[in-house]
Fold this protein.
Amino acid sequence: MPVANPTVGGGRSGALLIWIKRGGTLLLSVAVTFLGLLLITFVIGRVIPVDPVLAVVGDRASQSTYDKMFIEMGLDKPLWQQFWIYLQKIAAGDFGNSFLTKKPVIEDLARVFPATLELATVSILIGTLAGVPLGIMSAVKAGKFADQLVRVLGLVGYSAPIFWLGLLGLLVFYANLGWVAGPGRIDIGFEYSVTQTTGLLLIDSAMQGQWDAFRNVVAHLALPSMLLGYYSMAYISRMTRSFMLAELAQEYVITARVKGVPEWRIIWVHALRNAAVPLVTVIALSYANLLEGSVLTETVFAWPGLGMYLTNTLQNADMNAVLGGTLVIGSIFIGLNLLSDLLYTLLDPRVRRRA
Amino acid sequence: MSTAAMPTRQWLLTDQPASRRQARFGQAYRIWLALRANRLAMVGFWIIAGLVAVAILAPLIAPYDPVIGGDLRTVRLLPPSWSHPMGTDDQARDIFSRVCYGARLTLMVVALVAVIATPIGLLVGTTAGYFGGWVDTVLMRVTDIFLAFPRLILALAFVAALGPGIENAIIAIAITSWPPYARLARAETLTIRDADFINAIRLQGASAPRIIWGHVVPLCLSSVIVRVTLDMAGIILTAAGLGFLGLGAQPPQPEWGAMIASGRRFLIDFWWVATMPGIAIFVVSLGFNLLGDGLRDVLDPKARK
C-alpha cells in the first residue's frame, strides 16, 4: 500500500488523535446538517401565506394590539436576528403552541411519540427477521424459483402505495375475516385501565399483568406493523441478497469449501458475519424510512402517533405543530444516519483503520 | 423484419458511423436491442407506453365525463359491470373514466418533476465535482441537508407552506428529489474531471461553463437518466400519498391518490371505489420499476447483480 498506515506508526497517542479528529469532523458535519434543517423549517415558517400575528390576536383585534403583537413576536427585527431567536427557542425546547390543541407543541410531540416508536420498532423487527433470511435464501438460490419469488415480493413492496395496501388489509383481515382488531392502538374499553408509564402499550400492559389488554394491543398492532414490516423487508432482503452474493464469491468461501466446512456453516457463519457490517447500516436506514411510511400508515389505521399528528395539524394549517413535527422527524433521521455511520466504523476493522 | 428495413438496420449498426448523428442513433438502437432482450423490462416499457396512450387518448377511451356524474338516484356507487367496468363512485361518476383521465395527471407529475429536478441535480453535481474545493464542500453540504430529510415529510412541510394543490405538490416533490442526482453527477464528474480530453479542451481556452455543459454533462446524463427512471415509481407514490392526505390534487380532479382517499369512507360496503385507482397506481409504478431495472442493466453493467 502506498499510503502509510498512521495507526501503526503513531502508536497509541496517534490512534487517539485520529479518533478525536474523526469524531470532531463527524460532529461538525452533524451540527451543520442540523443547522440546515432548522434553516429550512425557519424559511418554510416565513413563507406561509398565513399572517402569524393574525393567527394569535384574531382578525377583530385593533391596529394597536396588532402592532404590539407584531413587535412582541420579533417580526420587526431583521431576518437573521429572527433566525437567532428561533434557534434560542428551539434550544430551550420551545416549539411554540399548537393552534389546534392549544398546548405547547413539545408536550404534544412527547405524548404522540411513543405510539410511533412502538409501531416502528415492532415493524423493523418483523422486517429484519423476515428480510435477512429471505435475502440469504435468494442469494444462495440465485436465479432459481425462490430467488424470483423474493424478487417479486420486493417489487410489489416497491410499487404498491402503502396506504392502499393498508386499506385493503383492513377490508380483508378486519372487516371480512375478523382476524385483527380495527383502527386505533387499543379498544376504548381498555384505554383507561392501562396506566401509561412508558407510553409503549405492549410494555405497559405486560408489566401491569393485564394480559387481556396486552392481547388487544397485539391485535391492533398486528396489521399496521406487518404492513410496515413488509415494506422494510422488501428493502432489507434486496440488500442482504446483494451483500451475500458479494461475500459468497470471495476466496475465503472457496477455501472453506475445500477444507470441507459444511455449507450451512459457510453461509450462516462465515459469509453472514462479513455481510452483517453493511447490513447494520441498511437496517438503521430502513428504521429511519419507517418514519416516513408511518405518516401514511398512521392516517389509514387512525394510529395516534407522530404521523397522524402531523397530518391532522397540516390539514388545519397549524404551522408551529407541523414544523415541530418535521424537526423531530428530521432530527431522528439525522441521528439514525449518524448511528449507522458509527456502527459501520465500529464493526468493520477495515474502515476503522482507514483514517 | 422486412428486407426494406435491412439497410436502415445496417446503417444503425455500422461500426464506422459517418456522422455524429448516425453514431447517436446507432447507440440508441443498440440500447433498444439490449433492452428488448430483457422480457421484464419490455413489460415495463409497454405499461408506460400504455399509460402515455391512455393519457393522450383519454377523451376517446373514457366512456363518461370524469368530473360530471350521472343521476345520483340510479347510478351512485354501482359495482363493476359492463357499462361501468370499474363501478361508479359516490358522486355517480364512472371510475374507469376517472382513472383514464387520472393518467394525464400522473404523467404530468412525473414529467414535470423530472424536468425540474434533473437539471438542478446535474447543475449542482457537475459544478461541485468540476470545481472541487470549497464550492464542492458547500454544495454537497446543502445536498446532504436535503438528503437528511425523509422525502415525504419534507414535501409535506413545503406543501403546508405553499398551500395544497397539484402544482405545489409537483414543486415540493421536485425540491425533494434532486439531491440523489447531484450526488451521482458529482461522482461521475470526479472520474472524468482530470481526463486528457477535458484538459485538452481547457488548454484550448474553453470556459468552465462550456466544459461542464458541453462535455461533462453529456457523460453524466445516462446514469442520471437511469436513476430518474428508477425514481419515477417513488415520485408517483409520493404524489399519490400527498393526494391521499388531501394536499396534492384537489377534488374534483381525478387524481388517483385523492380518489383512494374519497373511496376510503365507503371501503367496507363499496370496496371498488378505493381499490380501482390503487390498482392503477400499482401497475404504473411497477412498470417504471421494471423499466428502470432493465435500463440499469443495459446502461450500467457494473451495477448488475
